[in-house]
């Protein structure tokens, strides 16, 4: 008899508890999706991006969330594989029902996901470099890094100022390297630059000596440009010095992290590249509007991770901050269309990449002044303009 009473009481309590739970609405969450190359060959991109997003989610939730709602980041590791990225993009839309997505560490993974987010009408902020991501403009797609076309223009501007008119190129065949090679080819004539040698290398190549020897033996070359990212440019740089090529070597913003200097070693000395102000934060003028932004990010990231910042983590920082601001401006964390509209009209946003002013015709919002031309001296970055 007592046993039956206990069971009855327990059952009744459970029923009351269940009814109470149904009667009390669960606290709404802001569901933001992300798929990044956290592991694999592009992990030097995705790892700091993932750590930055995790840090910012903790930070914003500690401050009360977005519009009073806590943020939950649903994150996947695509390892830089476009097929995995596409699968995760579908999962984020169909299963996780996120309101927006930040991700795409590489151009290849980004372009694989674009059709999914466009069809689902989910705002997507890419962290990859190719101009093709936002040109032509895609209604639901944005990006935070400077484009490969801008990198070519910044490099050629520096070359023109130094009287360089004939160059060689050695480009990676991955999505970014291939895209930047095409962009450099397209704009070279605008700067009276003639590309007289054109070589490529694959993502798994471990020695670029043959290609660089061809470049070295081409008459009239005054400098060399290496569009690419990952370990390839470091190998190119080491082989370049081993061959005794005594010409200026320009890299892309795809190597704008301390890891490139560490991989290339002493061979990196003198290499020039365009990059964000984040790499030279201490050297910015005190009245530079970016200085307090980049200095705070550096301090927060190093405190949270114990690691130095890279421009790649900065891309994620800008994306999250812009998305949160768009949600606050739109007054909603669930209406994707309103959030997209607010993103598209971002104006005067100061991030690690520069001052962002987007429009219906520009889903990046940066101009060439957002790039700094840097040179590696004594194992560190130096502003040369």
TrEMBL record:
SUPFAM superfamilies: Periplasmic binding protein-like I (SSF53822)
Designated name of the protein: ABC transporter substrate-binding protein
CDD domains from the UniProt entry: PBP1_ABC_RPA1789-like
Signal sequence extent: 1-28
UniProt xrefs under PANTHER family: BLR7848 PROTEIN (PTHR30483:SF38), LEUCINE-SPECIFIC-BINDING PROTEIN (PTHR30483)
UniProt cross-references to InterPro entries, sorted A to Z: BCAA_transport, Leu-bd, Leu_Ile_Val-bd, Peripla_BP_I
GO biological process, one term: amino acid transport
Family according to the record: Belongs to the leucine-binding protein family.
Membrane spanning stretches: none
Coiled coil ranges: none
Domain Leucine-binding protein span(s) in chain numbering: 30-364
Annotated keywords: Amino-acid transport, Signal, Transport
